Amino acid sequence: MEIIHLILGKANPNRMNGVNKVVHELATTQVEKGISAEVWGITDNPVHDYPSRIFKTRLFKASKNPFGFDKELKAALLTRTQSAVIHIHGAFLPVFYSVSAFLYKHDIPFIITPHSSYNIVMMRKNSIIKKIYFALFEKKLLDRSSFIHLVGKSELTGLDLIYHNRKSALIPYGFNIPVINKQAEKSSSNIVFGYCGRFDIHSKGLDIMLEGFAMLHKQFSNTKLMVIGDGDQRPKVEAIIRQLGIEDAVELMGSRFGEEKVALLQQCHVFVHPSRSDGLPATIVEAAALGLPSVVSEETNIGDFITAFDAGQSMKSLDAQAFYQSLASVYKRIYFNNELEQLKKNALQMIEEAFNWNNVLAKLNKLYKEAYLAKHELLEQKSFTLE
Fold it and tell me: pTM (2 decimals)?
């Protein structure tokens, strides 16, 4: 049995696309563990212009018709009818509706990971259009799937409101602790809070982050906020910073990737992510793997882990005041109680236990095997009946 991850894109870890990063990490770890896995990408630019990786990647030209897909992809899928389980990444994408119909017709089992698309907040965006699309297309895709792999409680709750089923599986992502520069030193005079992600003010709660940090900085002047990322809403972010009068305390670093991003995160004491809508942000897990405690919203789906391992603070409500209170709590533990090393140990323990790839892959492999066996047992029954 082999696993084929089907995505829009190229699984490029150097792009600010969370799905690409997760699929790259998942496929890499599967191959390292001896699992046969490939990544097939549907893209406007089917050129292999990404860094080297240990898994095989095949690229197929995207169609101008949102429901259409390449003949070469169809032919490639037909060569795997007896050997593969397809793992579709993404939701509310017309091409995947068409792919699911093709897979179902040819008895190729597949599971789908919607990557937060079904959580309540995301479903409210363009809600009328999504309701119509769900009724006409998305529901049929889910009906055809063997399993629906969800990474957080918010998505499990959101999906249950519109699609009652017994094939949803809640499994977080795994994460490998990166090799880090242990010589990197944090500031001895300032407590630095860090954010890394796209500049989406509403979804990522950047207004909550800046307003809450402004409250903290007014009380404790030795605090700084490092913001890694960029986007079309940067001018609005800059305007909020000026309005709050915290220009001297906030540093916008722009987009950073790879070792450069890791080096910047290592200069931080605490990672922050007060998102209004998310699946399971890889940046929080990545920061924890560097030993950073985090202040997060429940909507990140990591709050329960943070609380269970005492690896920071999970906000009690989704507003600037609650964010400030969580920041202040962690600040006091670090600055007054000298608990930074303990929080670091807790964050690393959370990664080693809750996001251990061995545990995650065991659960995913169970889904793959059940999907594969169920489909092929059904085929055998059909064959027996015909005979």
Answer: 0.80
